[in-house]
């Protein structure tokens, strides 16, 4: 198994596939079309290899490994908690903005006025 990373990984993978094809016959190559589709078409056209799309989805990658699933779940819960806290703080600020500042004064309604002199 070979692992390649970086921007040039697509070309490195192609070189490795061609190197293996010189030593032994290749029945088919499975690839993820996200980054390798154009290069797969070139390999089929120029070298006669059979390439098969094998798209990887979120759960295909993450759900196989329980620790990764737990970490992703914890991150999502932390983000949800942060959003809830931010919304509660915003709602608290908005509710205090509508209330008048200072102590409430008693209403004068219903009280009599002093008689004019």
Description:
The chain is mostly helical and 117 residues long. The protein has two domains: 1-56, no CATH class; 58-99. Helices cover 58% and strands 5% of the residues. It has four helices and two strands. It has a two-stranded parallel ribbon. α2 (33-47) links the parallel β1 (29-31) and β2. The longest helix has 33 residues, at 66-98. The protein is rod-shaped. The model has no long low-confidence stretch (mean pLDDT 78).
Order of helices and strands: HEHEHH
Number of domains: 2
Count of helices? 4
As laid out across the biggest beta sheet, the strand order is 1-2
Largest sheet report: 2 strands, parallel
The count of β-strands is 2
Q: What is the percentage of strand-forming residues?
A: 5-15%
Portion in helices: 55-70%
Q: Which regions have little confidence, pLDDT < 50, spanning 5+ residues?
A: none
CA gyration radius, whole angstroms: 34 Å
For this entry, what is the oligomeric state of its chains? single chain
Write the layout of secondary structure elements.
Elements: H1 9-23, E1 29-31, H2 33-47, E2 51-53, H3 58-62, H4 66-98
Parallel strand pairs: 1-2
Helix pairs in contact: 1-2
């Amino acid at each position: 198994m070979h692992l390649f990373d970086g921007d040039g990984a697509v070309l490195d993978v192609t070189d490795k596939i061609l190197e293996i094809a010189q030593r032994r016959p290749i029945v088919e190559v499975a690839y993820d079309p996200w980054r390798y589709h154009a290069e797969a078409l070139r390999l089929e056209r120029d070298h006669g290899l059979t390439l098969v799309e094998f798209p990887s989805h979120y759960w295909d990658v993450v759900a196989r490994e329980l620790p990764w699933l737990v970490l992703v779940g914890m991150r999502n819960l932390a983000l949800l908690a942060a959003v809830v806290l931010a919304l509660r703080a915003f709602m608290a600020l908005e509710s205090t903005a509508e209330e008048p500042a200072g102590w409430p004064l008693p209403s004068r309604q219903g009280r009599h006025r002093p008689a004019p002199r």
